[in-house]
Amino acid sequence: MAIQKTKIAVVGCGFVGSSVAFSLVTQGVCDEILMIDINKERAYGEALDLKHGIEYLNRNIKIETGTYEDCGDANIIVITAGAPPKPGQSRLDTLEMSAKIMESIVNPIMKSGFNGHFIVISNPVDIIAHYVYKLSGLPKSHVIGTGTSLDSARLKNFIGEICKVDPRSVQAYSMGEHGDSQMVPWSVVTVGGKSFYDVVRDNKERLGNVDFDALVKETTQAGWEVFNRKGTTYYGIACACVGIIKAIMYDENRIIPVSTLLEGEFGQHDVFCGVPAILNRTGVKEVVEIHMSEDELSRFEKSAQIIKINIEKLNERLK
Ligand SMILES: NC(=O)c1ccc[n+]([C@@H]2O[C@H](COP(=O)([O-])OP(=O)(O)OC[C@H]3O[C@@H](n4cnc5c(N)ncnc54)[C@H](O)[C@@H]3O)[C@@H](O)[C@H]2O)c1
Question: 105: CA distance to ligand 1 center in Å?
Answer without folding.
Answer: 13
